[in-house]
Design brief:
two-stranded antiparallel sheet; alpha/beta; TIM Barrel
Amino acid sequence: MAGHKTRLSRIMRNGRVMLLAMDQGLEHGPVDFNEKNINPDYVLDIAAKGGFTGLAIQKGIAYKYLENYAGQVPLVLKLNGKTNIVPKDEAYSAPVATVKEAIKLGADAIGYTIYVGSPNEAKMFHEFGLIRAECEEYGIPTIVWAYPRGKYIPDEKDKNVVAYAARCALELGADIVKVNYTGSIESFKYVVQAAQKCKVISAGGSKQTDEEFLAKAKEVMQAGAVGFAVGRNVWQHPHPLEITEKLKKIIFSQY
């Protein structure tokens, strides 16, 4: 069985990360999809052809669709999730899959969302702690989606709370932390500094113009992050492989 370093090297190609995420069906509902990308095969095909270093999906998509793409793109299995129907004030993402299921599906890493600052923070910390221990036993890297959220968080993209969330991921033992971009190179440098040996990747966020998205990518990399986890800005794009190539050049260039 492959070990932790081997699996991590598959997700981090030359030290850089470019994940394609399609967990939005659970997190946001079908509102994000059109007639093409509502079909998981459409998105998984982009992941394979685009040379992404990982594909972040929930277990239902993995069980039903991944077989045709096995070996073409590393799997990052999301182990928790929620809908956007529940109010953000009580933000909580419940476990919906196990480490053993991730291994069965051939995952190279697991993804786990933690809402730092939520009234349910302690519960999520505890649940991730148990999962992290099991991942250590089986040599599975962990990627934490660390989002400040809940009634105690007035601004989810404030550099101080994003840096705090990134630091929490380090303290909890994550290998990689996915956070929201804070809006400037200088503020995001602070986030990267807070995370230290926990590598930082930025969320792609909601659909933007190509110019806005690629400018953001350059700033993220200049701030010292190692890559991106993108979704809508790629598979909602009319030419997904073209925007992928542009993003790839930014991520895998040296800044």
